[in-house]
Amino acid sequence: MSSFFLMLPFEFIYRILDHLDDEALIFSARNVCKRLNLILDTYYPYQKKALRILLNVTGGSSKQTKYVVDAGTVPILIQLMQSPNEITQEDAIWMLSNIAGDNKNYRDFVLDHGILEPLLNVLSDDTCTLTMLEVATWCLSNLCRFDSPSVDFPKIPSIIPILSRLLQNNTDTRILRGVCYIIRKLIQQSNKLISTVIENSVIPRLIPSIIPILSRLLQNNTDTRILRGVCYIIRKLIQQSNKLISTVIENSVIPRLVTLLEHTVEVIRLSALTVIKEILGGNDQEKQMVLDDDGFLPHLSMLFDVDRTQINENLCDVIVNITAGTESQIQAVIDADIFPRMIQFLYLDADKIKERVACTIRNSTRFSSTQTEYFVGQGAIPLLFDLLRSSETKIIEIVLEGLQNILGWGVAESKQMQNSNPYTMLIKELNELDKVEELRSHRDNEVAARARHIIETYFDIR
Description:
By secondary structure, this protein is mainly α. It has helices at residues 3-17, 22-42, 47-58, 62-70, 73-80, 86-100, 104-112, 116-124, 130-143, 156-169, 173-189, 193-199, 202-220, 224-240, 245-250, 253-260, 266-279, 284-291, 296-303, 309-323, 327-335, 339-342, 351-364, 369-377, 380-387, 393-417, 422-430, 433-438, 445-458. It has 29 helices and no strands. One of its GO terms (molecular function) is nuclear import signal receptor activity. Keywords: Protein transport, Repeat, Transport.
């Protein structure tokens, strides 16, 4: 066949596509689409032109797209997605995206013909051009449109890592927007995918753009629903990854959270407190950033006057987190005279409060005899023995750790002063040693071993 005859269909087709009457275009497309499919499937030199014409048709109305699909174009386009010619490959993906985006049935039709695997191969190709990635991302987003189910669930585990790489390695707004849309739609189909998304390090890439927005909302709003919602989001983000604490701090969230501790609405005070608690669960440097806010400890002290269980428990968590830090951070708690107010919560007889008081004493007696002496002076030893009555193994273990810390400092002090261990003497005076002796036969091996160590090391009882 001469090149002249081969070119005739294109001249004819271009005239059709230039026609302003949709009905004429659609009527002609019935016959033209089959001819174009033959060109696509048979004449490689003209694939690019045929594709571009069909691309224009599928970019029109749903009726026009229907004629393209009915002509059997989809299987050919799936094959052309693997074409060595980049333009042909790109146009094939673009056209399939138009078809899939037209309606749910076409989306499923395209999926049933196996578009997903070659499309994921394109998205995984490190040599892909930016334009190709944009088109392929858009195509995948159209496969996630409409009601579920859409994308085949067994294949989703292979999709998420690819989306994660696209998110990590791109700054193109269309790709980023497309990937975020796809992830959202996949999660909407099944929230079981959330863990897969998290495991593939998607969250850290999203956070840098989220935290500044949350910070602005926190700074510029007085609406309680917004404040509560923002605090909740920040808290949940930190709980997913404490690596985000530094990002939160860098965005000046702490000063605003501190002022919210004196908000007139209790739920806002609690919301701010829970975020601060999570931040204080970070490293020592991050803890110090909170403590460096001059208003923090005074505001915290004021909350001890509020008799609410949730606030009380979170307050105790905050103190535990601070005292898990450095010697100077423990000293800040001592200087603020917070511990005497904390132990008042023990009247609530709640295991959570008991555990946190025991943790605070244990944490605070790690570094120095001076700090240990302060806590003993606040009644730490009688408190610990009272807590030994607990049926909770975890509380008992923490109490024994605290007693070991205190008795250890007593040994150091007795050597320095050439006297008896002042803390062993205090325990004997309390007539409480039998509680520790009984624990030597505790069902928990670690508790039993720690009790034996205390009795044998500090009281020379075998």
